[in-house]
Design a protein that fits this description.
Layout: E1 4-10, E2 14-21, E3 24-27, E4 37-39, E5 41-45, E6 48-51, H1 53-57, E7 66-68, H2 70-76, E8 80-82, E9 85-87, H3 89-108, E10 114-119, H4 128-139, E11 146-149, H5 150-155, H6 158-161, E12 169-175, E13 179-187, E14 190-199, H7 201-216, H8 218-226, H9 229-249, E15 255-259, E16 266-270, H10 271-295, E17 305-309, H11 316-326, E18 330-331, H12 339-349, E19 355-357, E20 365-368, E21 376-382, E22 389-390, E23 395-400, E24 406-410, E25 415-420, E26 427-429, E27 435-439, E28 449-456, E29 458-462, E30 468-473, E31 479-483, E32 489-493, E33 503-508, E34 514-519, E35 524-529, E36 535-540, E37 547-553, E38 558-569, E39 572-581, E40 587-593, E41 615-617, E42 623-628, E43 631-636, E44 642-647, E45 652-658, E46 664-670, E47 675-681
Parallel strand pairs: 1-10, 10-11, 12-17, 17-18, 19-24
Antiparallel strand pairs: 1-2, 2-3, 2-4, 5-6, 5-7, 8-9, 12-13, 13-14, 15-16, 20-27, 21-23, 21-26, 22-25, 23-24, 25-27, 28-47, 29-30, 30-31, 31-32, 33-34, 34-35, 35-36, 37-38, 38-39, 39-40, 41-42, 42-43, 43-44, 45-46, 46-47
Helix pairs in contact: 2-3, 3-4, 7-8, 7-9, 7-10, 8-9, 10-11
Length: 682
């Protein structure tokens, strides 16, 4: 069943919220006006703290007990003054959140279980204000609250996100009370902010509008603003509300004529006058866009487009200035002041994507660890107590990343939590063993998980340290070194070849270095170092000694090439072979005789030290693997209890090995045309 998640965007003047349940997003309107936003205001009425529209409606009678722009107090660290009382910004925001939660639950009839809050771009990871907001959320009953940046949320707005290609660079201009420019890179559903810059241009612009209003209504407004006390406060609040309303209406009209109160003289402002007042702020905006792009190491042609959001983005001049100054496409979504909440709701709705399944474990006592996003995260809380049983997919714990995304750490399979090795507040990495558990199933019922199967027309061997897997194509065209856990190629050599009809085989040279020995039908031999790809030696057989059998002695690092001819020694016909030193490429001995094979002791046509064996033990000695016909079995070494058995089928020469860390069991086997290797995670 989908959890119900409340998403809140605390703006300086307006707060918006949405309820997210799975893929469904429901705006949370103001219960008084029905509008999608509510004032970011509070008013202390006796012992009751009113929020939103209810607070604004009491402002006329309790102006000194009223405050707006509460989140700004979090930025400055100043207390929120309500009459003769002082409250911290955290206390007031927690109370606001508490009311918002109750209103949401009452309206939709469901419990709100989780919370996501938007934060300005300048709230960077490790910023004290992020910690303060999380403390606010915890106080409101949301210990696992998440934070999403305004710029990232704006990019994820469904009205603008659909046509952004992966890797696109987007300039986000968020024009609210503060004006912020951010350069973001899109990675599918994840947005990375590369650089940003913030100015108080929005507030400066509003102040210019208030000053223009004051000049136009000088004889009426100035005395009220200078009166002090309740009269001065009410005049200031009214002037701010009025100019923001005029600014908004001029996005649709060319001129506005209105009165701040029914008894006030009329005030007139046209779009040209608005553009004139906005000119300093817009000049900063264009310059900031260039600076942010340059600071991130890019140029304007690298930018896919400009996204213009926030209430002041309705200014027609803003779009015109950015197009002219930057030369990039400008996107301006419908209801731009709601772009952030729409994108934040979309981000929150992908909560299930922020689940980290436990790494596949081994046997009995199992270490629990997770591949964490960005490799490091702080543990928020455990959701299963020691001794508690859980099912596959259950959330065992939660972690918080540096940018305050919260991920659920889930179980890979049924189990019982035996021991916790990290406590809330501790930082985990992808290598951290956070807890120990044991399987809830009988050991005999467990099966190792096969990760992959690989095949080659050639041979497979392990490096002497069992850290890597080596793939050798039979013609010596290439040798690939692969990671065992995922099969990824970590190194590859492709030697220069004299003839397409070559043969090649990897051997273990003295010192444990791998070498590719290759040869052509006419007897050109080459030795290549697998790690570096360097040619270490080469030599050529005599024209009448074309090789039909090639054998290598790894200990002596010598090669025998048996020729395709015989010689007459008296009445007898004898075989011919040449013994070469592989390090120098020099002839050690020309060999003639009818029983040359007796001198081939220790020489083989493939490496005897390929790392595989009919039976082997894991590095820690707990497990033993072996072969029975074409079946591979795995036992507990101490009890010889069988853990699992699998039949490979039509296979021959089956042999087994463990990786160096003991996490993987390998089986090498052959078919008439290929050599295969199966890898299980144990």
């Amino acid at each position: 069943m989908a959890q119900h998640l409340l998403v809140v965007d605390f703006g300086t003047h307006q707060t918006t919220a949405a309820l997210v349940a799975g893929t469904q997003v429901h705006p949370v309107p103001c219960p008084v006006t029905g509008a999608l936003s509510r004032p970011s205001a509070v008013c202390l009425d006796g012992e009751s703290l009113l929020v939103g529209t209810a607070a604004v409606r009491r402002r006329e009678t309790l102006p000194r007990w009223f405050a707006t722009g509460v989140r700004q107090a979090l930025d400055t660290g100043e207390p929120v003054r309500l009459g003769d009382r002082q409250h911290s910004a955290e206390e007031v925001l927690a109370a606001y959140l508490h009311v918002l939660r109750l209103e949401t639950e009452h309206r939709f009839g469901v419990p709100v279980e989780r919370l996501a809050l938007t934060v300005p771009a300048y709230y960077e990871p490790q910023d004290r204000r992020r910690e303060a907001l999380l403390a606010v959320a915890t106080e409101a009953g949301f210990p696992d609250a998440e934070l999403v940046g305004d710029a990232a949320a704006a990019v994820l707005d469904p009205y603008t996100h659909g046509d952004q290609p992966d890797g696109a660079l987007v300039l986000v201009c968020d024009l609210g009370a503060a004006w912020t420019v951010s350069l973001a890179r899109v990675h599918g559903e994840r947005v990375e902010v590369l650089a940003h810059e913030t100015s108080g241009s929005g507030q400066d612009f509003d102040l210019l509008l208030v000053n223009d209003l004051r000049a136009a209504l000088h004889g009426w407004l100035t005395p009220a603003l200078q009166a002090g006390g309740d009269t001065g406060l009410l005049a200031r609040y009214a002037a701010g509300d009025f100019v923001r309303s005029v600014k908004h209406r001029l996005s649709e009209s060319t001129e506005v004529v209105d009165r701040i109160t029914p008894t006030a003289p009329p005030y007139r402002l046209d779009r040209a006058g608005l553009d004139r007042l906005a000119e300093p702020a817009l000049r900063w905006l264009a310059a900031s866009c260039r600076a942010v792009v340059a600071r991130a190491g890019f140029s304007l042609p690298d930018v896919t487009g400009v996204l213009l959001v926030g209430g002041a983005s309705r200014l027609p001049a803003a779009r015109a200035v950015l197009r002219a100054e930057l030369g990039r496409p400008v996107r301006h979504p419908t209801e731009p002041e709601h772009a952030v909440i729409r994108g934040a709701a979309r981000w929150a709705g992908r909560r299930t994507a922020r689940q980290v399944p436990a790494n596949t474990a081994t046997w009995r006592m199992e270490p629990l660890s997770w591949d964490l996003p960005d490799g490091r995260a702080r543990l928020v809380r455990w959701l299963v107590e020691p001794g508690g049983q859980y099912t596959a997919g259950a959330t065992l714990a939660q972690v918080r990343t540096a940018d305050d995304r919260v991920y659920d750490l889930t179980a890979q399979r049924d189990g019982i939590l035996m021991e916790r090795r990290a406590e809330p507040g501790a930082y985990l990495t992808s290598d951290t063993i956070a807890a120990m558990s044991r399987s809830a199933k009988l050991l005999g019922g467990d099966r190792a998980a096969r990760r992959h199967r690989m095949q080659v027309a050639g041979d497979w061997l392990l490096t002497p340290d069992h850290e890597l897997l080596v793939e050798c194509e039979r013609t010596g065209a290439y040798v690939r070194t692969r990671a065992i856990d995922n099969g990824a190629v970590v190194n590859e050599i492709r030697p220069r070849r004299r003839d397409e009809d070559c043969q090649g085989q990897v051997f273990v040279a003295p010192g444990g270095r791998l070498a590719l020995v290759s040869w052509t039908p006419d007897g050109h031999f080459s030795v290549w170092d697998v790690a570096s790809g360097e040619l270490t030696s080469s030599f050529k057989a005599a024209a009448n000694n074309r090789p039909v059998k090639v054998l290598v002695h790894e200990g002596q690092w010598r090669l025998i090439a048996e020729a395709d001819r015989k010689v007459h020694v008296g009445r007898y016909v004898r075989d011919v072979a040449t013994l070469w030193d592989l390090s120098s490429g020099t002839v050690v001995e020309e060999m003639v005789g009818e029983d040359l094979f007796r001198r081939y002791a220790g020489f083989t046509d493939r490496s005897p030290h390929d790392g595989f064996a009919p039976q082997c033990d894991s590095p820690d000695g707990r497990l033993r693997a072996g072969v029975a016909g074409s079946a591979v079995w795995l036992h507990e070494a101490g009890t010889d209890e069988e853990v699992f058995r699998t039949d490979i089928g039509e296979a021959s020469s089956v042999r087994t090995a463990f990786s160096a860390d003991g996490h993987h069991l390998l089986a090498r086997w052959q078919t008439p045309d290929t050599t295969c290797v199966d890898i299980w995670q144990v």
